[in-house]
Amino acid sequence: MRRWKQAILGLIVCGTAATVAAVPQRQAGDVVWVALADLRPTQSGVAYEQINYRLAQYQNSRERLFSDLCRNAGWGKSVRFSAESTPGDTQSYQCSNAYKKQRNLSALKTAVSGPNNQLYLTDGHHTFSAFYDMPGGGADLKVPVYIDKIYQTKDLNTFWQQVEQDGNAWLFDAAGQRIHFQQIPKQLGRMQLQNDPFRAALYFLRDSVWAKPKPAIPYVEFYWAQHLKQQAHLKFPGYYSAAEYLQWLERIYHYIANLNGQSVIFDNYKAADLGWQGGLHFEKLDQLLCRRDHTRLGVGKLGLALQHRGMPVQCDSRQYLSNNLLSTGLSQLPVPLNADKSVNVLIEIAAGSIDKWQQQKANPLLLEWEEQNGTARKINYLPYPVNYGILPNTLSAKEYGGDGDPLDVLLLGGALTPGTLSKARIIGIMKMLDNGEQDDKLLAVPLTGVFSDIFDLSDLQQNFPSVEVSLQLWFEHYKGSSAQVSVLSFDNAAAAMAILKASLNTSSGCDVFCEKNQH
What is the pTM of this model? Predict the structure, then answer.
């Protein structure tokens, strides 16, 4: 019995020792490997578009993914990997400089240790959120972090006070409102952290109108973002079109550029303290959606981020050949109707524009600025309320009540650049007379954005009842009182598709395509 009791006591002692040993005794300056799920955020929001850009890069390049894993482990960007390599298996890829030179500790993300030995991430919320959200990543993915400080207090209130005082926490939500530390999410990733579009704006505008100050100031982007949120004219427009998003960035760009170094931005920080550069440096702004140089064309940083969100971004070779001539960048005109019943709309006039562009009859791959009395025509009225375009390779035949030109399309949604080719869905038709001649306009919606759930005219009437009235008023008045333009009626998607199919039968470029779409 005594031996049995001694054995039990020994197990208890060993178990207790094992439990104590299992609790890591960390010190400031340690590098520890920890699962992403075990890192608590110290801020409530991140810039989703910054994360989306990184995820788009990983989707396009596995080398970039593994290179980032090596770089954030302090071993540089050079890496060797295979088709079987996975982020969670560090033995499946090799950081080329690992253990060949001293680890670059400055490349590691930092964390602090708080009550109950909990680790709190103080740098790297965007990088690790991308690791959390990427395929092969997730809560169990282990990453190395540098322990920046050990907080000895066991009281959470005292801990958060000290962390914020040290500049290692941002206790504001994405709207800029003060929050309690208990409102900070417990996990990383976009499903947990809030989206702060103003923080994203600072990311995309970095090194153009502002640059990170040296020495670094923690949360400098949030300081700028907090200031921008207070400017009513810089209100975020939402994610409806890439062009609209870029226009918002341009407004922010000009606002920051027109500040001066002594402008107070946040707390006691002035613009010069937070990296304000002053002046206009358009080079990087011009490359955000599409990158162009003398040899190649590609999607830019912002373009990749918005594409990953699901927004259409088209980068092509269209260019202004003169003030009155625009190349669409197309080598041939596309078919008007796709197999999924979507249509390809060639944009002639952007929503919000007063410039009257049109397809050139002599060269359908070019747009020309329509002339009136020898000068480029501008609408002497409110700007176009919608994108105005055509369905290439269609013919609105006069025997069907048309005008002998390609079918006109009114595409609802954010502004699209003239020459852009946009996939859309036909939802109806606006029947109208222009000086006694029939001049019907097909109504269409983009496949993404605020109107993407509209499938028929009845949906539009129910969800956006004022659109029909707005279109009728605009088209009946934009040419002035001397013109006789009248909107007769609106009809549904079936009526519009019937006219589209009739235009395919009469189009000179129809050929085999029409045979495939007779049904």
Answer: 0.65
